[in-house]
Design goal:
Elements lengths: L2 H17 L3 H8 L8 H16 L3 H17 L5 H17 L3 H11 L9 H17 L3 H13 L4 H17 L3 H16 L13 H9 L4 H13 L13 H17 L3 H17 L3 H14 L4 H10 L6 H6 L1
Length: about 325
């Protein structure tokens, strides 16, 4: 058989095993995809990236998403959906791993990207996570600009809720409490107009985002939204983060914020400690630092959290480093 036919068969077989999450077999068949097979080879590299993502090896996942983009540059056949997906995942990993090179790559490539219908969710994710990154490294104004662009570019009302929640968080961390409350209330008001039962995939996380945004000034609403979130249908395993430690860490962190709001500091400390442990174990530096900071805020002493923050924010000036000086 021609190498292109063999590559197509190997890739299709790998996809079948991916659906069952038999990662070792996925990689066996991906190794059989001939590099001469143009777009099939690019898709194989992307699936290798997803295998590393499923194994929580996010550094290697990032490497293979970069390889995917580079291979797409050489392909005769283009696939903008793969390009958009790779860019949005690299934006997420650049922010969470605090990797300046990944962020620079995403910023460079997104400037020339045409965001047509069908890939606009990826544009939102790129802008939102670039905002997260720039806030973390101390570029607060740039972070706010990017978050505003993300909100304006939201592909659905649920993603607009995400954007408003992000703006609320940025304002709160910058000490702009009135703006933070305003954005949170706008997010809550928009969420009220939506039927949560019709949320698709990651859209259900809008309730989690608003709960976290409201917790400091309206803990009763935050508690109600958190309870409603757990009543929604599980996220499709193939589409989002169901069963993923990243989601577990976020859910646990919000539970800690709710406990802190009702002055149950023992439970808050337990939740923040667990979230810190989860994010640190998967090397999500940004989120681990945020959880460590939450621990320090409510603990008399937490040397482990202090050491982690010091090790991963050296030379930075952001809202966390300024608060703990």
């Amino acid at each position: 058989a021609h190498f292109a036919v063999r590559a197509e068969i190997a890739f299709s077989t790998a996809l079948g095993y991916w659906a069952k999450r038999e990662l070792d077999l996925v990689e066996v068949y991906l190794e059989q995809v001939d590099p001469r097979s143009d777009i099939i080879h690019a898709r194989a590299l992307e699936l290798r990236a997803w295998c590393y993502d499923a194994r929580r090896d996010y550094r290697r996942a990032a490497d293979f998403f970069v390889l995917t983009l580079n291979r797409l540059d050489e392909c005769k056949v283009q696939d903008r959906a793969i390009t958009a997906t790779a860019l949005s995942i690299l934006a997420i990993l650049g922010a969470e791993l605090v990797d300046a090179q990944l962020v620079e790559l995403v910023e460079c490539r997104t400037q020339h990207m045409v965001w047509s219908t069908g890939i606009t969710t990826h544009r939102y994710l790129c802008l939102a996570y670039l905002a997260h990154y720039h806030e973390f490294v101390g570029n607060s104004f740039q972070a706010f600009e990017l978050a505003t662009q993300a909100t304006e570019a939201a592909p659905t009302a649920a993603f607009q809720v995400f954007g408003l929640g992000l703006l609320s968080s940025l304002a709160r961390n910058a000490g702009e409490n009135l703006s933070a409350r305003l954005y949170a209330q706008r997010a809550r008001g928009l969420l009220k107009t939506l039927d949560a039962r019709k949320f698709v995939g990651e859209e259900r996380f809008a309730m989690l985002v608003v709960a976290e945004s409201c917790v400091s000034f309206d803990p009763d609403t935050a508690k109600e939204l958190y309870a409603q979130y757990w009543g929604l249908a599980p996220v499709d395993q193939m589409l989002a983060l169901a069963g993923d430690q990243r989601l577990t860490g976020e859910e646990t962190f919000v539970a800690g914020a709710l406990a802190e709001a009702r002055q149950d500091l023992d439970e808050a400390q337990e939740c923040y400690q667990q979230a810190f442990k989860i994010f640190r174990s998967i090397r999500y530096v940004r989120r681990a630092v945020i959880a460590a900071y939450a621990l320090i805020r409510i603990s008399i002493s937490n040397d482990e959290a202090h050491r982690y923050i010091d090790a991963h924010t050296e030379g930075m000036s952001n809202y966390i480093t300024r608060a703990i000086q």
